[in-house]
Give the backbone structure.
Amino acid sequence: MELKTRRMLDRSFTTIGVFAIVLMAVSLVILLQPIVWRGAGAFIFRETVENRKLNLELLGRGSRAKVEIEITETEAARKPVYDMMAAFEAEMEEGGSAFRKQYGREYSELRDMLSELLGPLPGEKNPVLIRAQYGRTRWDRAQVKFHQIRYVEKYDYSDPDRMGVKIEKPRSALFESTSIEPLFGYLEENIEQMMLPKLTFYWRFLFDRSFDAHFFGGIWPEVLGTFYLALGAMLFAVPLGIVTAIYLAEYAGESRFVSLLRTCISSLAGVPSIVFGLFGLAFFINTMKISNGKSVLAGSLTLAFLVLPTVIRASEEAILAVPRTYKEAAMSLGAGKWHTIISVILPAALTGILTSIIISLGRAAGETAPIIFTAAVSVGRPLAIWQTLSQPSPALSWNIYNLATEHEAVDEIRHVQYGMVLTLVAMVLLLNLTAIIIRARISKKLRG
Amino acid sequence: MKGSKLIAMISVFALVGLVVAPGSAVAEERIIIDGSTTVGPIAKAFAEYYMSKNKDVNITVSESGSGNGAKSLINGMCHVADMSRFMKDKEFAAAVKKGRTPVAHVVAIDGIVMVVHPSNPVKGFTVAQVRDIYMGRITNWKDLGGPNVEIVMISRDTNSGTYETFEKLVMKKKKIYEKAEYVGSNGAIRQRVQSTPASIGYIGLGFVDRSVKALEIDGIVPDMNTISSGIYPIARPLFMFTDGYPKLGTHLHRFITLHLSPRGQEIIEEIGFIPVTRY
């Protein structure tokens, strides 16, 4: 080959390489940017006075004096609204059945929405569910609700060949020349005084349990559950995996049976995770009965089985990569096989083994399917470590899915879902980082 | 040795979890609830309400579908099985064979509401028309007075109690058309309908919100009054099953009778279902 062609090939290869890396970086940014941005919304957001009320009354947080001043302030700003409503109700009372027929339904819808925005209206009894006891606690949700109050969403079905087209009409038009019409103008001008939005940093989102099915509060049970599951999986998978790897690399030799075994392990790595989940249910829970129903223990074991092939194969490769001369030197000094493995081969292979553990740890923390049937629940308390043996726990990966698809009020609590995603990503990153630091220290020690 | 150091570090991490756990009163007694995604919101709200009053109990709720709830109860893997349909003969037999006696507690009444995208001009239809849609006999909205758009039908999966009720009350044992799309929960149907203008789906009353349009069936609007009075044709009770009647005075007994208390009934109504005592 001519020198010129060779150089050109070289250069084009470099270009493709650089291009690939840039593409990766860009897609990572595109992927992470919304995760971080939206996830941060669970921690940093504009809270309304309702949130401060909730914090004070439910959790005893915040200064009572300050919140009470704010409540008086907002109540004063809200009073004209309540007065207008009372006036309109009186008007309806007098107006007779025609009047009631015209405005009855519209008014009750408006009333419902106002109570969703501001919390229970005066004279209403206090609801049981926390979500109904307070108005919108987040300013962004309050604004969505406010928009719904200002505008009626209607669909124009006039074109028979197409689906209806959404049109928004000011709601005030519905109540033209009644005593409640000025309400809309008043809301427009005074909504901030009525809600007092304030930027807040809710760091306790990580450490609070959820209140009222994730409407309020944080995600501590999920965080803890994920933590237990991932570390529990490692607790089982790592010793088992390393011992198997040592056996395969050093003791098994090269028989047909062993190569079959290796093939089996490799194909196990390709089995879909949901199959592991069902296996975990059938084997650990239904057959072995290691716990009475779902438990973190059963989930950890299932996850351990899931990551075991990765640990075994990578550890085996790491052990095989240790130069033969090391082993020979140890043997020639009179060390036995076991001694050689423990004191020479394993330390030399340790960084490789740790890499396999790091990869598996991230996988175990993020997997959803294996824990659906074995460990995960939508609601539960944070567990103490001994309770993991017998009790199921919420876990981030599963609860993200649960909130996204099954929750009855998905749109109201998107921020919790995003916060969970961010936390999960951060947790995997953190677990990996710790493992990487440990690996770096160990390999430094080994070299030095 | 290095390995032991690593293990020590890992266990330190595990312990950190324990130490950091703020205010987690250790609950020794537990109630495990599994089953229907329709009953799920009630179970979750009850669980959190009950736990806030009783610090010594941990109630976990999973929403995996009525069929799985029944299986869990039969296998002794849960204390309460949420079900949006009654137990089948087969399930009863399996339970009895394992020495369990399922006891039904009706916690609320629910209607199955047909929902479409709000941009859909169709206002309602008859039960027979719904059946025709899901049998694949009516495939276009124009046959129902809508625009010329093909109907996208969404159904629950066969593990669902809502599916079985729908099959019994609407389909009358006729097979659902093969083109129907199956999804795993009420919430998933609602989201699918929200995002697909030509779709139709069915969900429990408690899941209906402003983002979807509830249709009239036989000219009757599904709401608390029409359903509880039996005028609305597709209504059903929601169940919680236990293995035998729970021992009096236990947490399980108090939990399973929560729906009979005024508080419990308010919760059910606030979520959007109908308390059993409303006629």
